[in-house]
Automatic annotation (TrEMBL):
Residues covered by the UDP-N-acetylglucosamine 2-epimerase domain: 24-366
Pfam families: Epimerase_2
The species this protein was found in: Clostridium brassicae
Ranges that cross the membrane: none
Gene encoding the protein: wecB
Assigned protein family: Belongs to the UDP-N-acetylglucosamine 2-epimerase family.
GO molecular function: UDP-N-acetylglucosamine 2-epimerase activity
Name of the protein this chain belongs to: UDP-N-acetylglucosamine 2-epimerase (non-hydrolyzing)
EC number(s) on file: 5.1.3.14
Lineage, highest ranks first: Bacteria, Bacillati, Bacillota, Clostridia, Eubacteriales
Alphabetical keyword list: Isomerase
Length: 371
């Protein structure tokens, strides 16, 4: 074999952030020919990350449609990847995490009998509807994958329980920690100028909430809890990064549109997001990736979901699951805002997701298995 042809496929901003440092490492290897294919399941937010990491995709499927359905995403990825695979015939396809792009790309590779490497493999809630559709995307990808790059020992244990051969599981840490080496800067000036005008002597709460299972009443409860938290604490500011989904935007604007000390901003580019995380006091989120990122910076996380697949973070004490009940959210937020001992325990807990060298570990396993 001359060079190992590795094709990385992703479609959303979270995937791009976590795959970017791995792609840069693949590009540095003389024995690897790196190819990148994006589905653009999310268009604008994906492009921000590609620009930040100077990644030029070899293929851009550009599948995003207004009000797109899961069926539509899945079928467009399947159909479009067939021609890409016929042309390139990679030795291995790398997919990440739990998106619909991840599952559909894995299925398309399986149909062509191409080896599949699953980055961030083995996370589980064991409830197929929470998070939806991510839990089943991840499990189905795991069933199709040949190489499982698990971030933690617990993720490895989950895979072993499902009958995955131990020799095909590699514990590597999480590549998102690698990505933060590229983005966190001292004396950082935000691209979004509103963030430069915030008083960081106050306690800043960074908020994201967009999961499908929270649409409707869940998002409304989160918004109403933020109003109460602000009213009870005069020395705080809330920065809510509002997902562009129309359902999420409509509710947040209706409830929070004119509330003093609550800033509604569109999703930030990755550097702004990571540096806001560094400056904030705490994070409230229903995101998965932020549960890994914020603890690396010593920021406590209140998880606005009833379950999490990041069990290690919960056990380490870096995150706390609070659900979407207004009273519970307010109570738990006020504990962190007023109780220094509780805040210290969460902020000083050890992040279980690695040392920032996950990408090189994954690349080394690929080299060992294909050379």
């Amino acid at each position: 074999m001359s060079k190992i042809k590795v094709m990385s496929i992703f479609g959303t901003r979270p995937e791009a952030i976590k795959m970017a440092p791995l792609i840069k490492e693949l590009e540095n290897q003389k024995n690897i020919e790196s190819k990148v294919c994006v589905t653009a399941q999310h268009r604008q937010m994906l492009d921000q990350v590609l620009e930040l990491f100077h990644i030029r995709p070899d293929y851009d499927l550009d599948i995003m449609k207004e009000n797109q359905s899961l069926n539509g995403i899945t079928t467009r990825v399947l159909v479009n990847l067939e021609a890409v695979f016929e042309k390139e015939n990679p030795h291995i396809v790398l997919v990440h995490g739990d998106t619909t792009t991840t599952f559909a790309a894995s299925l398309a590779a399986f149909y062509k009998k191409i080896k599949i490497g699953h980055v961030e493999a083995g996370l589980r809630t064991n409830n197929k509807y929470f998070p939806f559709p991510e839990e089943m995307n991840r499990k189905l990808t795991g069933a199709l994958a040949d190489f499982h790059f698990a971030p933690t020992q617990r993720a490895k244990a989950n895979l072993l329980k499902e009958g995955i051969d131990e020799k095909n599981i590699f514990v590597t840490g999480n590549t998102v920690i690698d990505a933060m080496k590229y983005t966190i800067k001292n004396n950082y000036v935000f691209e979004n100028n509103e963030l430069n005008n915030i008083d960081y002597d106050k306690k800043i709460i960074m908020v994201t909430a967009h999961r499908r299972e929270n649409w409707g009443e869940g998002i409304r409860n989160i918004c109403e809890s933020l109003i109460e938290i602000v009213n009870l604490n005069k020395n705080i500011e809330v920065v809510y990064l509002v997902h562009p989904n129309p359902i999420v935007k409509k509710t947040t604007q209706e409830v929070l549109g004119n509330i003093d000390r609550i800033h509604l901003l569109p999703p930030l580019d990755t550097k702004d997001t990571h540096n806001l995380m560094k400056k904030c006091y705490m994070v409230m989120t229903d995101s998965g990736g932020i549960q890994e990122e914020a603890p690396h910076l010593g920021k406590p996380v209140l998880v606005l979901r009833d379950v999490t697949e990041r069990i290690e973070a919960k056990e380490a004490g870096t995150v706390k699951i609070v659900g979407v009940c207004k009273d519970t959210i307010v109570k738990e937020a006020n504990i962190l805002l007023s109780n220094g001992e509780e805040y210290f325990k969460m902020s000083r807990a050890i992040n279980p997701y690695g040392d920032g060298n996950s990408s090189i570990k994954i690349v080394n396993e690929i080299l060992q298995n294909f050379l």
